[in-house]
Every structure is written in structure tokens, then in C-alpha cells.
Design the sequence.
């Protein structure tokens, strides 16, 4: 498959949604779908869908539409979901435990370690993985190849943990701490800022009322 | 304060970030800040900052910059953080419990109920709130004024819960289920789609490697 560069973040952010909808069509034994039909389900315009997918290759066929199984599998491969990513979670509080228990296997998540500073949590097992002392994080990173680090520690400790992950060779960080992390160029960070999400909700809710 | 309409979602989504940075400046006893200094901290350009804030009023003063306390308080009020929002969480699994334990009080969150279908969870208390049977959700909504419903149930049940919340008079929905909910016009929904977030991370991580 030919690779196209400079794809906008807006398009990239829509890919997982295509993946999800196509996965549901597959489950319902739908073989093919036109951009118009897909548009009615997913809520983007048909022309937007064609444009988005054209960024990555020549998928549809005029008069036939998209082959659902093929497009789903192509998007999986574009997203990189067909590989495995060794992942550790740092911070085994509520969010950390929720992430550990969540089934992200579809995204290639291979959870291999959980770390926390709280002696009450160290030694407990979540999905068969023992929570380790955060003091052992650096040596763990030295001895294991880790692709993704999930930061679920309080905001005051987040940058320190981030620095250790970067130094330990982690390539991507999924950050749940309410801070913007400083990372070297080329490092991938995806933030989930729950407070910002709920503030947006509250703002929109107030607009409707006035 | 004069209200301006038709503010883009992109600007709205940046407001919580301004709020967070200004809150930190306040904590560090910073009285005033220029758009240039704020730009260096927050990572938006100074002109972007001036443009964003101008959507909501006339805050800065040429040669003085922004009064940190005043701007922070104005943004709080624009976001609607100075009010209280009666909130219930439906689904007391990992994510639901994490949200219940998280401190969203700053966003005006007033957690008044948690619901689940699992008999093992019903009756347990989280932050002094007893988990109630989801079968009692409708009557609870009838007897209580609820502003925000947080949906943390599995995706197959999400639409049903959403319909009950809408019918029960809830005004805003914070949705953690990996589905796009159908809601009547005028209903506010803010999605946190964790699978999509991690897929974006995985995609970007793969781009870096090639």
C-alpha cells in the first residue's frame, strides 16, 4: 500500500471511528457499503468519507462502494492495530486500575507491568500482573522493551515519571495526568484530560440554557 | 459581561486549558501575564491567545497584559464552573468508580447518585454514595433534579441508559461508552472514547518509526 504523508490530525482522529463502525458492520454481516450509506451511520458527509479514505489509498469502487471486510482490515493496518505494543501503567489508582482492566487488546495493547508508589498497592495483582514498586521502574525499563507508557499518577509526579519513561526508551505516552508534559522532539504523547472534557460539557450545557 | 455567540468548538475546547494554566499561575502568586509570556507556557501563539480571549470580552490591557486572578475568574464564569451540577454516574465498573473517586468538584460536579445492574455492587458506597439498582434509575430521575448523567455502562446498554437519562430530564451527558449516542436536538453530549484515543497514539507511534 502506498503511503501518503502529511495527513492532517483531523483525518487521523477520525480513523478509529471508521474502524469502529466498519467493525460493527462486519459483526452484522454487511459485505459492502456505499459512502452514502456509511455517511448516514457515521455522521460525516459522503464526500468527507471519500476524501478521508483517499488519503490512505484507493479503497472504494464506483457503483460498488466499499468492501467492508477489506476496508476494516486496511484501516486496522493503517492504524497499526495488527502489531503488539508492550505497555506499562504507572499509577495504579482509580484511573490506572480502570485502564488496566479495560480491554484495549484490540489496539494491540500488551500490558506487561503496573507500577505504584503506594505500599498498600504494591504486590496486588490486576489481570494477573503484580503491581510493582515505582522505585523499580527504571531498572524494569532497562531490562524490558516497552513501547507505551500510560501515566496515571497525580499531576505533581507526572513529569518525573514521563522523564523516566522517555529515558527508558518508551516510544509513546498515554497521559491521564492533568498536565502538558515536556518531551523531546519525536516523542508521541496522547493526552486524556478528563477535567477539560467535563469543563467543555459544562460550558455547552450552560449555553443551551440561556 | 457581553456575550458573543457562534464561538467555534476549537476555541471552546481551549478554554479549560487557559483555566488550568491561569490556575497554576495563581497558585504561584503571579499577578499579571502578557499574552507573550502566557504563549510560552501554554504553547499557543500570543496572537491566538488574544484572539481566543477576545471572543468572550475585553480582558487584556496593552502594556499591562492580563490580570491573572481576574482572567481566571472570568474564564471560570464563562465555563460555568461557578455553579453546581447535580450529577449521577450510571455504571459502577472500573471507569465509573474512577470517575466517582476523581475530584471533579472544580467543575461544579455534585455527585448525587451511582447506579449499576450488578447485585454485587448495589449497596456498596463510593465517597459516601451508595450504589443503587439501575432499575431504580427512572424513579430517581423523576424525584430528583439531575443536570449531568455520566454513562459508564458497556456499549450494548449505553443507548438505553441514554434514553432514560434524556427522558428523566438530564441536560448533559458525559459518555464513556464506545458508541455514538442518539439524542434529541439540543442535548449536550461529551464523549470520552478511550479506544479511539489509544488508537490515535498507536497510529502516531507507528508513523515515527517508519
Sequence:
Amino acid at each position: 500500500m502506498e503511503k501518503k504523508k502529511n495527513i492532517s490530525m483531523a483525518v487521523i482522529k477520525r480513523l478509529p471511528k471508521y474502524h469502529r463502525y466498519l467493525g460493527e458492520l462486519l459483526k452484522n454481516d454487511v459485505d459492502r457499503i456505499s459512502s452514502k450509506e456509511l455517511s448516514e451511520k457515521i455522521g460525516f458527509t459522503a464526500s468527507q468519507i471519500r476524501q478521508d479514505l483517499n488519503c490512505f489509498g484507493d479503497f472504494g469502487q464506483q457503483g460498488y462502494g466499499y468492501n467492508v471486510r477489506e476496508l476494516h482490515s486496511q484501516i486496522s493496518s493503517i492504524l497499526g492495530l495488527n502489531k503488539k505494543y508492550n505497555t506499562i501503567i504507572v499509577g495504579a489508582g482509580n484511573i490506572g486500575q480502570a485502564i488496566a482492566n479495560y480491554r484495549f487488546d484490540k489496539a494491540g495493547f500488551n500490558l506487561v507491568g503496573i507500577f505504584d508508589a503506594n505500599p498498600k498497592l504494591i504486590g496486588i495483582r490486576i489481570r494477573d500482573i503484580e503491581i510493582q514498586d515505582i522505585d523499580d521502574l527504571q531498572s524494569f525499563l532497562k531490562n524490558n522493551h516497552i513501547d507505551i507508557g500510560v501515566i496515571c499518577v497525580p499531576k505533581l509526579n507526572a513529569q518525573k515519571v514521563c522523564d523516566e519513561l522517555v529515558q527508558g526508551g518508551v516510544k509513546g505516552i498515554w497521559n491521564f495526568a492533568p498536565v502538558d508534559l515536556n518531551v523531546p522532539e519525536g516523542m508521541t504523547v496522547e493526552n486524556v484530560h478528563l477535567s477539560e472534557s467535563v469543563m467543555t460539557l459544562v460550558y455547552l450545557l450552560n449555553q443551551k440554557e440561556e
User: Anything to note?
Assistant: Residues 3 and 21 of chain B are 23 Å apart (CA to CA). Residues 9-79 of chain B form a domain with the Arc Repressor Mutant, subunit A fold (CATH 1.10.10.10). Chain B has a mean pLDDT of 91. The first helix of chain B runs from residue 9 to 27.
